[in-house]
Amino acid sequence: MSTADLECVDLTKQFGNFTAVDDVSFTVPAGSFFSILGPSGCGKTTIMRMIAGFLEPTSGDILIRGRSVLDVAPNKRPVNMVFQHLALFPMMNIEGNIGYGLRRRGLAKPEIARKVDEALERIGLPGIGKRKVDELSGGQKQRVAIARCMVMEPEVLLLDEPLGALDLKLREHMKIELKTLQAAFDTTFIYITHDQSEALVMSDQIAVMNEGRFEQVGTGRELYYRPETAFVAGFVGEANRWRGRVTRAEAGELQLATEAGLTFAGTDHGRGLAVGDQAEIFVRPEAIRIAHAEGDVAHLENRMTGRVTSLLFNGAASRAMLRPETGGDEIEVTLPQSGEFADLGRDDTVHIGWEGAQANAFSAGGS
């Protein structure tokens, strides 16, 4: 019998002639935080609804702790779901909301009270059971919604973009809260989001989804530093991107010539690109070194001079947009935290460079 809490096997969902989920398989180990990350319309919510039982797969299987749940009604599946709009009952107080499912199960009042109190302790909100829903902050409501699910002791908790309705500062705080709660309850979380930051911060494993399929499944570090497809390289994190033709290829190291007349050294990490192939190269803004003196970047394989077109101040994550003097698209560069470029201004001339190993190349198709 499988030791995984959740396993989806060859999962497909079609709506007429449209395939929303296309032969997707994945396994989620017990007690882990698994995220499905992708743009709107990629099929991630459809997967979630099939797991919950709200949609029936066209083909494939869904197993929870080794047992298929395809013939199990939604209210009988060992899963619970937290939505973006938390759907707390405004006519009930907090303990009424959290204990709702337990009352439906017919548990005795003393047992319900005990479980509700335990849940409030675990979410860090002891003693608020008598308060009304509208007396809580957004973050407190989020935790109550999770507690309402967790008292039912589901084997899998499904979270459908639960932070989407919160303001930015609260979302940042709740990323940490959710990861802490997941560890405290030791329950498997399946989380869907289009926000890469949410997925990277919280997840043990992330599946990047595009047009109904998983492009890559891995840790946040693997997706960020070793993307397997051009889509993952462009979707996870920020990246400068150039397209051109391979003019040299040897042992994974290559040279790319763009239509704008730029030439870049890069690596294909074993993808087998050959001379004449159309390719795309991705370079992270933080991989690019910026300098006042040309000699400071002279040792780097890729280097150029550019003019600052705009500055994006964001504290330690501040960046500059540069226009190469040889022409071509703007280049985004992360500014060092040393303060050396604190006085950098628009129209200033700087020199930039990066190693070929930090330029990740993928086939772009075509001829």
Draw up the topology in text.
Blueprint: E1 4-15, E2 18-29, E3 33-37, H1 44-52, E4 59-64, E5 67-68, E6 79-82, H2 94-98, H3 100-105, H4 109-122, H5 138-150, E7 156-160, H6 168-185, E8 188-193, H7 196-202, E9 205-210, E10 213-218, H8 220-225, H9 230-235, E11 240-250, E12 253-258, E13 263-267, E14 278-283, E15 289-291, E16 302-312, E17 319-324, E18 331-334, E19 349-354, E20 360-363
Helix pairs in contact: 4-5, 5-6
Structure description:
Strands 6-7-8-3-9-10 form a six-stranded mixed sheet, sandwiched between helices. The longest helix is centred in the middle third of the chain and has 18 residues. The two termini are 49 Å apart. It contains nine helices and 20 strands. The model has no long low-confidence stretch (mean pLDDT 90). With 367 residues, it is an alpha+beta fold. It is globular, with a radius of gyration of 25 Å. The protein folds into two domains: 229 residues, Rossmann fold (3-Layer(aba) Sandwich), CATH 3.40.50; 125 residues, Beta Barrel (OB fold (Dihydrolipoamide Acetyltransferase, E2P)), CATH 2.40.50.100. Helix content is 23%, strand content 34%. Helix 4 crosses helix 5 and helix 5 packs parallel to helix 6.
Give the DSSP E fraction (strand runs of 2 or more residues).
25-35%
Distance between the termini: 49 Å
Oligomer: single chain
The total count of strands amounts to 20
Under CATH, the homologous superfamily of the largest domain reads: P-loop containing nucleotide triphosphate hydrolases
CATH architecture of the largest domain: 3-Layer(aba) Sandwich
Into which percent range does the helicity of residues fall?
Answer: 10-25%
